[in-house]
Amino acid sequence: MDTSKVTEIKTSFTEQITDVADEKQLNDVRVTFLGKKGHVNGLMKEMKNLSPEDKPVWGNEVNALRNYILETIESIGTKLNEEKLNRQLAEETLDVTLPGRTVSVGSPHPLSRIVEEIEDFFIGLGYEVAEGYEVETDYYNFELLNLPKSHPARDMQDSFYINDELLLRTHTSPVQARVMKSKDGKGPVKIICPGKVYRRDSDDATHSHQFTQIEGLVVDKNVRMSDLKGTLESFAKEVFGDAHDIRLRPSYFPFTEPSVEVDISCFKCNGDGCNICKGSGWIEILGAGMVHPNVLEMCGFDSNEYSGFAFGMGPDRIAMLKYGIEDIRHFYTNDLRFISQFKQTEDGGHVDASL
């Protein structure tokens, strides 16, 4: 039995493994010596030509060679992996002393800011925030608010009808009606109702087919017009500042009686008259009035025992007045140049929103 072939293969392996520099070369050496057609398997095939006495000796020699090759390849593979990891760590090292990337911080949308400011004020007065459906029934949107199907005042609100009984709500008053109905004729009710409303208006600088509205409702025993006026005076001073006064002008709404329009003294001229207030010194901000007895009765309240007041305002218009915005369409165009201006208006100052 000639074992010189085992020695030759071991010497050849030692020479080749010395030149290995990466995982690919290491795998090529492994296949050459340990693969199916490799040198070690070739030595095992020669066992069939040996005598029974020589076979165990030959097997031990070949297995020793195989183990040597396997251990050497595993050791070099571990070394190559460590070197690769060290190179990767060196390339990806972070300099923790470098300044971080500046993160651009956004700001609340002016409408969101106004709505939250109004909500916070009325919550402080004990009101609850009530929300409802944007798709409403004609019954809740009109009929329960003293607007039967033949009522001419329906023409005041050109509506988006889905079918004869469903429409996109034209105001948030249906939320008030639903809350009153849920009370089974027992007060008190003290809510504000913010939300989107829809009317078939042509979009221009001061009108939109979709806009935001906040309505308020108080129903209890012995509620008077003076309570309404005091509430609205406090609201105007909270939103626009202590220097501003309000006035109430007689008006008409089907769901309130008496009804009033509420004006605030002009923030630009302080009542002296200018182009903003059209020389009057006053700017209309909302409508209000005492809840009509018919509405109370239809919603389950005894109008001889209960009374109430209601008001409705457009946060879009209030934001335009407060921030000096000249075009309502800026609120809905998602122009970051417009939105970014409000980062500096936390104190309620005006911005140049003319774009």
TrEMBL record:
<dbReference type="Pfam" id="PF02912">
    <property type="entry name" value="Phe_tRNA-synt_N"/>
</dbReference>
<dbReference type="GO" id="GO:0000287">
    <property type="term" value="F:magnesium ion binding"/>
</dbReference>
<dbReference type="InterPro" id="IPR002319">
    <property type="entry name" value="Phenylalanyl-tRNA_Synthase"/>
</dbReference>
<keyword id="KW-0436">Ligase</keyword>
<keyword id="KW-0547">Nucleotide-binding</keyword>
<comment type="similarity">
    <text>Belongs to the class-II aminoacyl-tRNA synthetase family. Phe-tRNA synthetase alpha subunit type 1 subfamily.</text>
</comment>
<dbReference type="GO" id="GO:0004826">
    <property type="term" value="F:phenylalanine-tRNA ligase activity"/>
</dbReference>
<dbReference type="InterPro" id="IPR004529">
    <property type="entry name" value="Phe-tRNA-synth_IIc_asu"/>
</dbReference>
<dbReference type="InterPro" id="IPR045864">
    <property type="entry name" value="aa-tRNA-synth_II/BPL/LPL"/>
</dbReference>
<dbReference type="GO" id="GO:0000049">
    <property type="term" value="F:tRNA binding"/>
</dbReference>
<dbReference type="Pfam" id="PF01409">
    <property type="entry name" value="tRNA-synt_2d"/>
</dbReference>
<dbReference type="GO" id="GO:0005737">
    <property type="term" value="C:cytoplasm"/>
</dbReference>
<dbReference type="GO" id="GO:0016740">
    <property type="term" value="F:transferase activity"/>
</dbReference>
<feature type="binding site">
    <location>
        <position position="257"/>
    </location>
    <ligand>
        <name>Mg(2+)</name>
    </ligand>
</feature>
<dbReference type="GO" id="GO:0005524">
    <property type="term" value="F:ATP binding"/>
</dbReference>
<keyword id="KW-0030">Aminoacyl-tRNA synthetase</keyword>
<dbReference type="InterPro" id="IPR004188">
    <property type="entry name" value="Phe-tRNA_ligase_II_N"/>
</dbReference>
<dbReference type="InterPro" id="IPR006195">
    <property type="entry name" value="aa-tRNA-synth_II"/>
</dbReference>
<comment type="subunit">
    <text>Tetramer of two alpha and two beta subunits.</text>
</comment>
<keyword id="KW-0648">Protein biosynthesis</keyword>
<keyword id="KW-0067">ATP-binding</keyword>
<protein>
    <recommendedName>
        <fullName>Phenylalanine--tRNA ligase alpha subunit</fullName>
        <ecNumber>6.1.1.20</ecNumber>
    </recommendedName>
</protein>
<keyword id="KW-0479">Metal-binding</keyword>
<dbReference type="InterPro" id="IPR010978">
    <property type="entry name" value="tRNA-bd_arm"/>
</dbReference>
<dbReference type="InterPro" id="IPR022911">
    <property type="entry name" value="Phe_tRNA_ligase_alpha1_bac"/>
</dbReference>
<keyword id="KW-0963">Cytoplasm</keyword>
<keyword id="KW-0460">Magnesium</keyword>
<dbReference type="GO" id="GO:0006432">
    <property type="term" value="P:phenylalanyl-tRNA aminoacylation"/>
</dbReference>
<dbReference type="GO" id="GO:0140096">
    <property type="term" value="F:catalytic activity, acting on a protein"/>
</dbReference>
<feature type="domain" description="Aminoacyl-transfer RNA synthetases class-II family profile">
    <location>
        <begin position="85"/>
        <end position="321"/>
    </location>
</feature>
